[in-house]
Amino acid sequence: MKWRAYPKYRDSSVEWLGEIPIDWNVLPLKYVCRESALYGANVPASEYVDQGVRFIRTTDIDDFGQLGKNDAVYLAPSLVAEYMLEDGELLLSRSGTIGRSFVYDEEKHGDCAYAGYLVGFKPRSILSPRFAFYFTKAKQFEEWLSLSVISSTIGNVNAQKYANMPLPIPPPPEQRAIAVFLDRETERIDALIAKKERQIELLQEKRAALINYAVTKGLDANAPMKDSGIEWLGEIPERWPVAHLKSVLERNDGGVWGEDSDNTGTLVLRSTEIALDGSWHIEQPARRFLSAREKEGARLREGDLLVTKSSGSAVHLGKTAVVTEEVAAMGCCYSNFIQRLRANAAAYPRYLFWIINAPPGREQLAFLGSTTTGLKNLSAQIIGAIQVPTPPIREQRAIADFLDLETARIDALEKKVKQSIEMLREYRTTLVSAAVTGKIDVREEQ
């Protein structure tokens, strides 16, 4: 969409702002505030109470300047009497999520105070709080931040730096018009993004349902069914036997320890190089090498399955990948946090991949995993004891080929939707940046 430019511009004398409309000013933030650079309260968590004044922390503010509804904390009014927010007050995060911003609305938010990693600014009538908020969402603000961050243990921008930040200042009615325009346009863009995010959720649900149905019901919709006797499998085709996974495996063994590492030995694959969808992400910085003392038996070959057997997250426990021809050609070993499964003649590797990666299969592994030292763990015995349907090998191949094709189509659709979301987000930032710095004239946009 094309927007009009202002009739005349002048140099702002600020390199990262560039030109601004001729009747705009550029002033430090503190010059357009009644009070500025006000640090929040430092109160320990031990003082939190169930009811009282809401205590706003940087983690409570999201990227859109909204307060999260969960994990709100409260304090007794007497503890934060000097830190109570005033209507229209602007908060800026000085550490952690640097630059995150929030405008306090007394009617909407109720009584609130703010924490020490936030800095408060109370605008004068010359500055619209919403205009100032939108400036913090502009690319120019990000550029100013990158120039202003102090390098220390934790990067931060102190209150005085914020106070001295140059701010483009249109006439107040124009500020309000820009804020109203951006409220409307960003709401439209955010609604589109939300629809597309819901579309992704539906595609993921469809993908999961497709995998689960294919590996438990097969591809013949008219096949007579029987009760598998296993809760997570339910009914399966009548002629499919159910077997323990170990009965269709030639190998089920752990990998090598990686303490003895260098840059000249054998590539050792880790669970971090396996994505949740079973694809590979092997990049040079992520590689770990082991000296020539590694076990020769840990060498991988095409068709091997690698299963994550130890993880701090139940989501990653049991994630599985099939060793491709390209990966096998690297002469890899695999780490001790991974279990290698090698199918025997009764099983097709890609079919085993899909049945392990099916939602019920992953849930079963997460449920069976034991917890030690903060990690969820699977053993060869646990993995081998999982019961799986074992259709004839030709049918396994057909199911795997079907799922390879159909999930690739869904994944391609999901990728397109994600790309469109990124384009919308980029457009949102570009539109905000152009409006608050006067690159487009939106005064008469309805």
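Next protein, fold it too.
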Amino acid sequence: MKFVPRTSAPSATNKFYLKAGKGGYNRAMEINKNTHSCLPNCVGMVHGRWLESQNQTNYSKYDKLPTGNAENYYPYTKDGYKRGKEPRIGAIICWRKGKAGNASDGAGHVAFVEKVYDNGDVLTSNSAYGGSRYYTKLYKKSTNYYMGAKYTFQGFIYNPTNFGDDKYNLTRLLKRGCTGSDVKELQKELKKRGYNLGKTGANKDGIDGGYGELTKAAVKKFQKAKKLTADGTVGKNTAHALGWLYKGK
């Protein structure tokens, strides 16, 4: 499924942001009793985007997220959704304010990840209880997604939908003699693009996780086709040409 980012405010009649059971699909707190809107509220935004991004109106089936204070979202694991510290498109980024579970020192904040940049920065959709109905904001990985002195980054809640936009993260330079799962990913990508890897023993397709001469030759051909330096090693430029992220040295 293709991910469609939101970078502007939803309309006042968008059902993903109206209260479930009152003309909409949103399980968060109803903010406006007249319009049944769940905005402005950060949890109303993430519940709306969670369903909207998946194009699912069945909130009882496709939204198992908790409700209530934002800082309680990340610690809550009964929803069955995976969590982690690395950003992904369609995820929810979470912060606590003060001590998690203590509403008296603040409710924390949640936002929806619309874009993930090569350096790990994220562009997010936000809404502020008692404030802005909708705004976008960039949070930087280099600052551990800092949003204010009173807030602590907790992590990401990952969307279960495969949007096909997740990029492979290469964490090292690949060259002749390397072995491992990342080499296999490289070989799969080259094979998919039509580059011949030959046959290696029991591996009839040449995908064996070993960076040998045939893999090096295929990489060089790919680099030439992309007008890159054809040295047979996969660093930042070649990784990006493959559509990957590169976090190696």
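About the second fold: The chain is about 20% helix and 15% strand.
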